[in-house]
Design brief:
By secondary structure, the protein is an alpha/beta fold. The chain has ten helices and 14 strands. This is Sugar/nucleoside kinase (Ribokinase family).
């Protein structure tokens, strides 16, 4: 496999509480379990790394306990950090409430990952064969969006740039979003995010508008649909719904990140787009059968899963369909 994944996004510490259901306003719940884990963009990086792609991080980590925790998690996965720690603040965090039906609710607090300048990004170089990724989270922060967008616009024309707008797409100024989409080689989003960009409608029509009106340089767009799989449209007009897989979900946190990381990793080693989408569907399906956001499977696990016959399904379970 040639090239690296250069992830210029954000990573935070997740504080994960498992509960039977969200508490009613003014009431309290006792969690059945608690875990402190690396989250945010870390989940996508882990998915790419575990499926064989070399990954480096070009975002910003903090200088306090959260930043130290993230650096240790990066090191454990073999992910190199290219930028020095912030000298003035720690990394941010996210409280994740995972209910019995595998749904998740988040409250986040930004930290060092929300501050990027061109000077801070100076050590982030792109080599021939590299792939570059960023997400809408980093573009939503006032302290990072301008520098990151300027940097993206200077990427070599031959460098594939992958973008995930994420659920906070409405927090990204439209001008910034348009500039980033104009540079995008591959767009991966869920149906809600796709409609936010290209207006609601039939998924085939929305995907066509994304390419024609918003992503003029893109090779293709992936619209993720949870357990149903995803819809993939290429710039040449070829399009296909790629079925998902029937599994019992216990934790959907990080499934979308797993899907994107596995998809990019497969593309980087020459897998054709529709087969890469099936591979990503399998990776995401495996991830939701495990606890934790960074629950991405290895390439060997995905290949074994795919070799066990036709597990595909058009729909399975109300909650697993939610947003990967």
């Amino acid at each position: 496999m040639s090239g690296r994944l250069v992830h210029v996004g954000s990573a935070v510490v997740d504080y994960v509480y498992r509960i039977d259901a969200l508490p009613a306003p003014g009431t309290e719940k006792t969690a059945s379990s608690f875990a402190q884990v690396a989250g945010g963009g870390f989940n996508m990086m882990v998915a790419a790394s575990r499926t064989g792609m070399k990954v480096v991080f070009g975002g910003q980590l903090g200088s306090g306990p959260n930043g130290d925790f993230l650096r240790a998690a990066f090191a454990a996965e073999g992910i190199e950090t290219l930028t020095p720690p912030s000298p003035v603040m720690d990394s941010g965090n996210c409280v994740a409430l995972i209910s019995r039906d595998a749904e998740r609710t988040f409250v986040s607090w930004p930290g060092a990952e929300g501050v990027l300048t061109r000077a801070l990004m100076a050590p982030v170089s792109v080599e021939p064969g590299d792939w570059v990724f960023t997400s809408g989270y980093t573009l939503s922060y006032p302290g990072s969006r301008d520098a990151l967008t300027d940097w993206i616009e200077t990427l070599p024309a031959e460098t594939p740039f992958v973008f995930d707008p994420t659920p906070i797409i409405s927090d990204i100024p439209r001008g910034i979003l348009s500039r980033v989409l104009a540079c995008t080689t591959w767009l991966s989003c869920n149906a809600t995010e796709a409609a936010e960009i290209a207006c609601p409608g039939d998924i085939e029509a929305v995907a066509a508008r994304l390419l024609a009106d918003h992503c003029p340089k893109a090779i293709g767009v992936v619209v993720r649909a949870g357990a149903k799989g995803c819809f993939l449209r290429l710039a040449d007009g070829t399009a296909q719904s790629v079925s998902g897989f029937k599994v019992e979900a216990i934790d959907t946190n990080g499934a979308g990140d797993t899907h994107i990381g596995a998809f990019v990793s497969a593309l980087s080693r020459g897998v054709q787009p529709f087969e890469a989408a099936r591979y990503a569907n399998a990776a995401a399906a495996l991830s939701v059968t495990r606890h934790g956001g960074s629950s991405a499977p290895t390439d060997q696990e995905i290949q074994t899963f795919l070799s066990h016959g036709d597990r595909s399904t058009t729909a399975h379970g109300r909650k697993q369909e939610a947003r990967f």
